[in-house]
């Protein structure tokens, strides 16, 4: 069994508790989220930017897959964060260069599908390559989707999924976002993969659960969308207009994954930037409260899952507009007392945003 991602440990634990017969393997999760398992080894690695343990984890996963025979089942438990947690740079590409490309794309405003397209073509494990190494063993992937559209090639950059994209498309993405292209490390991904692939969780479950809870509390839930994308501050402006027009007692709920084009040197993440832009757009509108958070418990690279918005938030500290201009939503909400801190949740199904109109 191979488990990879922010939910690797809890997913592996469920398999351990229910599996009859021989079982061995490796679970790879983010630093700080390791918990011991019975029959499965656990290691940690870097996220959202890969590190040396990420490289070692990728090599161990490939070695285990390669050791499987035609009589074995290779069970891959895949969840959000896998792209960084198992990183094997392509031939001739250094880890430092892969880190540079990843960091630049994360700050560029590129969507996760675009980032993962580049990752697949600069990798020795993504883009179906793990499945290719495991052949002729039977392969079953159980995936929790953290990407808009739930495309297998984008979940963890698709280590066991066929990839329809090309090197040319990956290079075009780098040029579009003005990220210097690596000279080495490129290779075409796998276009056909044997094996079974099942998505067992996604943003839809989180959004529907939030809507059910809102209804139980007496609100009328309105789902804006399960898979919203776009620049966080622009989406926040549109949602502020919806909130101001919504009837009393409405809960506006949405999922998806927003992006931030980083132009400043501040801290925070897409959910905190959304929350700050929402607060500025609402300008203290009476009776409107909101939460924007990443379901994995980490928004961006900080320690907060997201941030709260309430009518008095702008009055609790100064410089909201300046903070937004510097992409310093984290600094603003830290001073205002609006950070939402959960710690790692052990899963990831993208972002969840809730706006309540009423008490």
Description:
- A six-stranded parallel β-sheet has the order 3-2-1-4-5-6, with helices on both faces. Strands 7-8-12-9-10-11 form a six-stranded mixed β-sheet, sandwiched between helices.
- The termini are far apart.
- The chain has helices at residues 8-18, 52-67, 82-85, 95-108, 112-120, 129-134, 167-176, 203-216, 232-245, 270-282, 320-325, 329-336; strands spanning 2-4, 26-30, 41-45, 73-78, 138-144, 196-201, 220-228, 250-256, 288-294, 306-309, 339-340, 351-357.
- Helix 7 links the parallel strand 5 and strand 6 (196-201).
- It folds into two domains: 2-201, Rossmann fold (3-Layer(aba) Sandwich); 203-357, 3-Layer(aba) Sandwich (glycerate kinase, domain 1), CATH 3.40.1480.
- It has twelve helices and twelve strands.
- Helix 10 (270-282) packs across helix 12 (329-336).
- 35% of the residues lie in helices and 19% in strands.
- With 359 residues, it is α/β, with parallel strands linked by helices.
Strand order of the largest sheet: 3-2-1-4-5-6
Helix % is 25-40%
How many structural units, i.e. domains? 2
Low-confidence stretches: none
For the biggest sheet, the summary is: 6 strands, parallel
Mean pLDDT: 95
CATH hierarchy class name of the largest domain = Alpha Beta
Number of helices: 12
How many E-type strands?
12
Order of helices and strands: EHEEHEHHHHEHEHEHEHEEHHEE
Q: In the CATH hierarchy, what is the architecture of the largest domain at level 2?
A: 3-Layer(aba) Sandwich
* Percent of sequence in beta strands: 15-25%
